[in-house]
Amino acid sequence: MHVLILGGTTEGRRLAELLAGAAPGLRVTSSLAGRVAGPRLPVGEVRVGGFGGVPGLAEWLRTHHVDVLIDATHPFAEKISFHAAEAAAGAHVPLLALRRPGWVPGAGDNWHLADSLPEAARLLPGLGRRIFLTTGRLGLDAFAGPASAGLWFLSRSVDPPEPGTPVPARMELLLSRGPFALDDERELLRRHRIEVLVTKDSGGAATAPKLAAAREAGLPVVVVRRPPVPPGVREVTSPEEAAEALGGW
To answer: In whole angstroms, what is the distance from residue 87 CA to residue 81 CA?
Structure first.
């Protein structure tokens, strides 16, 4: 059996680790988009780069005799997830989506939900002036419009935005990769006098301490809802569950 994991996440790396040597004749290939410099590589075979859209991915599945495709990409990698669904259907390959559970607000949280980054940007003027933006380098243009005039942003991401990308007029860039410790997040909020946190509902423990720090500080948090898994695609929430599901194929 040949399993192709569309990865780049902690869950994708853990799944590759679980499957490595799990059964005779099991071949696992992990595919990374190549958008992050110096990515953390999973064990086993790895390919880096795009496929050339739906036709390219479908052809790769056929040419490399892939038996199962697992979409373990970031919960907000909506485009590749829909490409995977279309390509898998075209190549007649079973598809499984591996998605870590989303975050759930708790006592003391002051969350403001948004369906998109532009909607999140429109909420900010009524919540505060100094914004901690943790939505990554893609989508910064959503905060570069008139709605963000007069606001100051601390934007944290693994890599800097591409040259020429519209960014907020008043923005400090912080390049850093998680996981992040709670004490460090508390100090960051204090040092930069943050008034509002903006995040995507990525889920997971690696970046969750910022939510706890915001809760302790009584700060409002704008949370961008994650896009849905493509219709008809089976979804699991852990690498262990994904590995177990492979036994049925």
So the answer is: 10
Q: What confidence tens digit (pLDDT) does each residue in 101-125 have? A: 999 999 999 999 999 999 999 999 9
Q: Where are the alpha helices (DSSP H) in 92-144?
A: 117-123
Angle at 131 between CA 130 and CA 137, to 5 degrees: 140
CA angle 164, 52, 136 (to 5 degrees): 40
CB atoms within 10 A of CB 130: 15
Give φ, ψ of 237 to 5 degrees.
-115, 5
Helix spans in 2-108 (H): 10-19, 53-63, 78-91
Q: pLDDT tens for residues 182-209?
A: 999 999 999 999 999 999 999 988 889 9
Q: What confidence tens digit (pLDDT) does each residue in 34-90 have? A: 766 667 889 999 999 999 999 999 999 999 999 999 999 999 988 999 999 999 999
Strand partners, 2: 27
Q: What's the rounded Cα separation, in Å, for the pair 9 and 241?
A: 16
Q: Which residues contact 170 (CB under 8 A, 6 or more apart)?
A: 151, 152, 153
Tokens of 140: 């910064």
* Residue 206: exposure state from Cβ atoms within 10 A (0-12, 13-18, ≥19): middle
